[in-house]
Design brief:
alpha+beta; Nuclear Transport Factor 2, Chain: A; 44% strand
Length: 117
């Protein structure tokens, strides 16, 4: 894989994380292509409008405690793929996301997490 492509993916991924921590939906959406696809445990979301709706709800539910306890336990970036395994302590002991980034935009994201009841 091209080192330039890997670095572009890494930069997009890092900006995405920063925007989530800032709870800034507009900044989050800067990283997504208009025709992006987001796979969630609740189903597939297609297009920037649906992705935006997801992140509006997502950041609204992020508490200061959750942000303080977030830890990425594994991060890998290779070419246009970024992969992260993460935890938010006892609140969400396991989560994982995979991103496909083309031309600096997320075109596909998957998310899965275990939330104890």
């Amino acid at each position: 894989m091209s080192p330039d492509r890997t670095e572009q993916t890494r930069a997009t991924f890092e900006h995405h994380l920063q925007a989530i921590f800032a709870k800034d939906v507009d900044a989050i959406m800067e990283d997504f292509a208009e025709d992006a696809v987001l796979f969630t445990p609740d189903g597939l979301l297609r297009g920037a409008g649906k992705v935006r709706e997801f992140f509006i709800g997502f950041v609204a539910n992020l508490t200061p405690e959750m942000l303080a306890n977030f830890s990425a336990t594994r991060q890998e970036v290779d070419g246009e793929i970024a992969y992260v395994v993460w935890t938010i302590g006892d609140i969400i002991p396991f989560g994982t996301d995979t991103f496909v980034v083309r031309d600096g935009k997320i075109v596909t994201q998957t998310v899965a997490m275990y939330v104890p009841s």
